From TrEMBL:
Natural source organism: Capillimicrobium parvum
Protein's recorded name: Glutamine amidotransferase domain-containing protein
Pfam families referenced in this protein's UniProt entry, alphabetically: GATase (PF00117)
Cellular-component GO terms for this entry: cytosol
Gene3D superfamilies documented for this protein: 3.40.50.880
Coiled-coil ranges per UniProt: none
Length: 258
């Protein structure tokens, strides 16, 4: 059976990137919904999995973006029904809020190519355990979240201790980005809200420096993205009744090198 995956986007320049490569390589059927463009989640349709990506809005800005209320409701209902979900950045904040935690403005932006470290639970987790104990990420956010009840904290950074969590068996959320391709990074640099957050932290000229740093560390991040998402998609595939991965992927040795 081919897994049917719902991808929720909140800005065109934040598709799933490397994560989408994994979905396509495994033959997943993708239904993409651009919520910020007025598209709506298909009513009455059940998906095998959901991927919720990032965006420039806050997960708490329902007054400005009324579709956020429906999205959070949908995520909560799907999670509680046992649907595997993967959220990145805004997607993680939305999941936290939907499941009884809280998304809110942080004390300062976290922007740049920065390391994240797994917790003991993260190292032992069947999905995040695919990552090294410490690994590079692209951070570009000012918001954060409080863990929902029952969640396990899987990773943290010096600025924001809540960088990843698991809720239940197959709902995963990561604050950081490792799925970004080089063209995506260039598109992000052109988003005013993202550029302003960067300059607020690092000052004029920081954009060029960040892109140069990203270019150096992107290959490692993308390897880690693939390893992480392969593990999560194996959960999706097993529940959908399809093979977890092609033979070549199943034969890959443990965690990738940093």
């Amino acid at each position: 059976m081919t897994p049917d995956v719902l991808v929720l986007q909140h800005i065109a320049c934040e598709p799933p990137g490397i994560f989408e490569d994994v979905l396509r390589e495994h033959g997943a059927a993708i239904t993409r919904v651009e919520l910020d463009e007025g598209e709506r989640i298909p009513a009455g349709r059940t998906f095998d999995a959901i991927v919720a990506m990032g965006g420039p809005m806050g997960a708490y800005e329902d007054d400005a973006h009324d579709w956020l209320t429906d999205e959070k409701r949908h995520l909560a209902e799907a999670a509680r029904a046992g649907t595997p979900i993967f959220g990145a950045c805004l997607g993680a904040q939305l999941l936290a809020a939907a499941l009884g935690g809280r998304a809110y403005r942080g004390e300062e932006p976290e922007v740049g190519v920065l390391d994240v470290e797994l917790t003991d639970a993260g190292r032992a987790d069947p999905v995040t355990g695919a990552l090294p104990g410490r690994f590079p990420t692209l951070q570009w956010h000012n918001d954060t979240f409080a863990l929902p009840p029952g969640a396990k904290r899987l990773a943290g950074s010096p600025a924001y201790p809540n960088q990843a969590f698991r809720w239940g068996d197959a709902v995963y959320a990561v604050q950081f980005h490792i799925e970004v391709t080089e063209p995506m990074a260039a598109e992000w640099a052109a988003v005013p809200a993202y550029a302003q957050a960067l300059e607020a932290v690092r000052g004029p000229g920081a954009l060029d420096a960040l892109l140069a740093d990203f270019a150096v560390r992107a290959p490692a991040m993308q390897r880690h993205a693939r390893a992480l998402f392969e593990r999560w998609f194996a959960l999706v595939s097993s529940r959908a009744g399809s093979p977890a991965a092609p033979a070549a992927s199943r034969a890959a040795p443990g965690p990738p090198r940093p």
